[in-house]
Amino acid sequence: MHLSNLLFLLQNRFLKTIFLSLMPIALFGQTDFEVPIDNRVDDLISKMTLEEKLGQMNQYNGFWNVTGPTPKEGNAKEKYDHLAKGWVGSMLNVRGAKEVRAVQEVAVNESRLGIPLIIGFDLIHGYKTISPIPLAETASWDLEAMRMSASLGAKEAAAAGINWTFAPMVDVTRDARWGRVMEGAGEDPYLGSRVAEARVHGFQGLDLSDPNTVAACAKHFAAYGFAESGRDYNTVDIGENTLHNIVLPPFKAAADAGVKTFMNSFNDLNGIPATADRNLQRNILKGDWNFDGFIVSDWGSLKEMIDHGYARDKKHAGELGLNAGSDMDMESYIYLNEIKSLLKEGKVSMEQVDDAVRRILKVKFELGLFDDPYRYCDEEREKRVTGSKEIQEGALDMAKKSIVLLKNENKLLPLKKEGQKIALIGPLANDKNSPLGNWRIAAENNSAVSVLEGLASYTGNTICHAQGVKLVNAIPAFHEEVKINTTDKSGFKAAKKAAKKADVVIMVLGEYGFQSGEGRSRTRLDLPGFQQELLEEIYKINKNIVLVLMNGRPLVLNWADQNIPAILESWHLGTQSGNAIAQVLYGDYNPSGKLPMSFPRSVGQMPLYYNYKSTGRPGADGGDAGSVFWSHYGDEKNSPLYPFGFGLSYTEFEYSEIKMSSNSMTIGSQIEASVVLKNTGKVKGKEVVQMYIHDQFASVTRPVRELKGFELVELGPGESKKVSFTIDPELLEFYSANRKWESEPGAFTVYIGTNSATKRKANFSLN
Ligand code: NOJ
Question: Which of 299, 331, 332 should be mutated for ligand 1, with most atoms under 8 A from CB?
């Protein structure tokens, strides 16, 4: 149903609803602020029919804007009737103060109990004003900036009617073939945990009833990032060791940070679809972790258990899902239709239904929806807040901080501000759509500042722009496959001509905004289409090239690394992309980003991650020279091209040796490892000082090193600072052979340095 039709339908019912709207509030005292939320929830549950309860567990997509395969069941008319009957607890993809008010009015005014909807949306990296993709934001290692970015996104979305975001995605990701690496915090569970906390705090703020905040959702529970072969939605088979030590920590961190909801995942994990994983949802999350929010299924994931070959039919899927602790059904139409008979047959229990409904209602109360269901539906506020100066400035700040300088030979960067002829080449150089990245459903197409536009505010140089390789012609829809042109090289000529006359060539290459993200797995990690060929052709003419990359995942950049003097990783930076890139290119912002994922030398290295296990035949490059019998490849190194945590600056930093306050500690004590960091260069800059620890032997094998602390330090030229990390037994805990988190006495190595490959180390023991 088109929006205008829906609004028309709603108008006709207007008078009736005014009368009805007063009734539930009068009956159930829903505006009583004094009564504790738990009591208000219980009171309401005691008045609900079974259908109304199942309604709360039912989530429908809106009447337009689908972010998943369109279901065959359920048309708009039916959805509308269900809303009016109180059979819908939540909607997703309804957005805009007016539109949300429209559906909220049906739920509140027409249904018997007037229970407001919770309105979900994929606010992943900004709402209308788009911030950098989460992988890029993570590259800032700036937790406060990420908190702020989430908070500004929440403010803009909340003004447009949204009160629940399906973010943060906290899946640890080790395989760049998987398109959704763009949506998470990369390969490390420690960094991922800190980022998860920052984002949850940003979205939810200090008080969820503040109308500028939204409920957050930790997803996808669990192990979705370990999809076999990096192919989206694929099966996952990992052991307990990886599950507990690598996959679960960011989820636990999100739960501890007070995240209100979880979303389960599409994948099966060791043979059980996550949606039906009782151990994950009931034992670990709701049991061990005491999570008291609710779990929403992923889009249709209840129904997809039939395709997994796990559920016989829809009814069976409902039984499996509810028994496993999935509380809300996103777009499967199963809970609403099947639970009634499952109850009759004793396959699920009323306690389980009540528990799910209680959890959902509690979040609604906490959001303040019962006190004012329209608190997110003020069109005036929406106008004021959308794209406001504050939000744009926040997006620019975050974008600058997300950029990673990968190479800068002969200090080609920053660029001189005057008298230069610049050739700006590449399909993405003036593209205003790609920088918006993948999750930008509410943003206007082509609303990002392109690199060409960003550079225009520096007027001292002349710029000659040539596309070289064409982009896809039309703007693709969210669900479409996209490619960067592979059939047309007609633009090469003009690009070469521009390069010939230039002092410096800036080439903007990478992935189209929709080439990474959900459903966008790739088997190749090189520059798509003719871009590599274009790069090499231009290099033959002018070697003074700055390569600006736009991409949502690590790419294979061997040739560029060997030949191109300067490389800047700018990801998909959002609305302010071009301005941020221009400021970095011209040195008005000194880049300080560090990679949150290892960049491979070859696709064949996937999955690739710095915190690998040693093996019995250790695989550090060099290995057992003279023999083949060690863990390695015959045709490529084991190490990445650029390691996790890597990133350069326009200044240089010098590290002292590590100083230990003591080389041993006992349970109950702590020690300190410190370095002195000095800015030995000529400009102010920021450095992410990283601490890694290696547990030399344990009851289960441990990674060669693991990130255990980091600090973002800003220093002026010549300045130095002591950076200290506290190490205590808690920091050394891991999921041990005893199947619990504990630290074990033994020998450890601590590394402190500029990236995960640092060799600066010291030893200590836990006695
Ligand atoms: C499917 C995705 O896996 C999930 O992350 C997203 O939140 C839902 N679709 C809703 O759009």
Answer: 299
Hey, what amino acid is at 113? L
Rounded Cα distance between 399 and 572, Å, is: 9
Q: Which atom of ligand 1 is nearest to the CA of 67?
A: 11
Give 749's strand partners: 694, 763
The answer to whether domain 394-605 and domain 653-766 are alike in fold is no
Largest alpha-carbon pair distance within the chain? 87
List the domain boundaries for the chain. Answer: 394-605, 653-766
What's the rounded Cα separation, in Å, for the pair 437 and 444? 12
In this structure, the residue with its CA closest to atom 1 of ligand 1 is: 299
At the top level of CATH, which class does the domain 653-766 belong to?
A: mainly beta
Q: How far is the CA of 180 from the centre of ligand 1 (A)?
A: 11
Q: Tell whether ligand 1 has an atom less than 6 A from the beta carbon of residue 219.
A: yes
The amino acid at 554:
P
Cα dihedral sign, 514-516-518-521: positive
SS3 call for 356: helix
CA of 391 to the centre of ligand 1 (A): 25
The answer to whether 168 and 218 have CB atoms below 8 angstroms apart is yes
N-term to C-term CA, the chain: 68
**β-bridge pairing 761-766 and 746-753:** antiparallel
What is the model's pTM?
Answer: 0.95
- Of ligand 1's listed atoms, the one at least distance from the Cα of 219 is 5
Local structure of 201: helix, strand or coil: helix
CA of 405 to the centre of ligand 1 (A): 32
Q: Determine contact, residues 504/424, Cβ cutoff 8 Å.
A: no
* pLDDT tens per residue across span 528-539: 999 999 999 999
Burial track 677-691 (b if 16+ CB lie within 10 A, e otherwise): bbbebeeebbbbbbb
Q: Which CATH superfamily is domain 394-605 in?
A: Glycoside hydrolase family 3 C-terminal domain (3.40.50.1700)
In this prediction, residue 224 carries a pLDDT of: 98
Q: Is 67 in the pocket of ligand 1 (CB under 6 A)?
A: yes
As given in the structure block, the two tokens for residue 461 are 């140089």
**CA nearest neighbour of 552 among 536, 569, 540:** 569
104 beta partners: none
β-strands 261-264, 294-296: how paired? parallel
CA distance 135 to 553: 8
Q: State yes or no: pLDDT of 740 exceeds 80.
A: yes
List all residues 6 or more positions away from 115 whose beta carbon is below 8 Å from its beta carbon: 24, 44, 52, 56, 86, 89, 107, 108, 361, 364, 370
Distance from the CA of 67 to the center of ligand 1, in angstroms? 7
CA–CA gap between residue 298 and residue 275 (Å, rounded):
8
Question: Is 298 a pocket residue for ligand 1 (Cβ < 6 Å)?
Answer: yes
Looking at residue 33, its pLDDT comes to 60
In this prediction, residue 9 has a pLDDT band, given cuts at 50, 70 and 90, of very low
SS (H, E, C) 544-575: CEEEEEECCCCCCCHHHHHHCCEEEECCCCCC
CA dist 551 and 750 (Å) reads: 33
Active site residues: 298
* Three-state secondary-structure class, residue 710: strand
Here the tokens at position 677 are 């960091």
Residue showing tokens 């809970």: 335
